[in-house]
Amino acid sequence: MATLRELKTRIGSVASSEKITGAMKMISSAKVHKFEASLKQLVPYRNQIKSIMGHIMTSGADFSSPLIEARHEVRKVAFAVFGSDDGLCGAYNINIFKAALSDLKGLRDKYGDNISIDIYPIGQKIAKAAAKIAGGNIKVIRTEGVDSKMDADKVNEFTHSLRDRFSSGEYDLVCVEYMKYHSMSKQRPTLEQLFPISAGQLLAEAGSDTGERMYIFEPDANAIFNAVLPMFVLSTMQEITIENRTSEQAARVMAMQSANDNAKKLQESLQLEYNKLRQENITTELLDILGGQVDR
Domains of the chain by range and CATH? Predict the structure, then answer.
């Protein structure tokens, strides 16, 4: 049985842990709001790009791009998986990796077991998990400077690299697995096909704001389409990155909240045990005093 001193020490340790988890929750919550604001700032830019593309695609003009050309045979796939570099975010990385494994199986079922897959892990946690499945037709590629905390320029550089390798024919398909942010308590693993971009995806992204208006394209529709399409891809990757960061911090908020609640319950339990033991000691001391008086 623990002594009063031991219980008091444990209560103090739990109280300190509660303060730490509470502070971490507040920090992560502030970061969630910051990334939510970044997502909102990205929306007008994305909407304008989608509107331009929608007008071009519904105008009847001819357009083409190597970025929308689907390969007749898929032999090699680039598979980027977003995770985190830091821990203390619950089952966040586990859920992403489980979804990635399921989607990798789906790719093999669709294109055959002989396809080669290059996994680009983004974040140390995913890199460690991906290393365990490397071998055979699966290769894990680490890119210097590409992590869950990379800035916008590094995101664009990484996206350009994937685009160039797709355009050159090194990859036939480029996919991205990430955690899509819905709310503080809801994030879902999502698979996005980055290349080739399907016309159906572009029309879906453009939405209904294409109208029946007539436009004159200068210099021509195809030139504008090929100028705007890379912007669309970059904005998509920027959005994916921010969505993933927001989801990571939201998962950390929930994990810290759970840890904080557990610490409070443990502290209450220890305090109750401490009070009972203290009461028992007081009662024992009183009985000893009374027993001594009776003996006299």
Answer: 31-253 (3.40.1380.10)
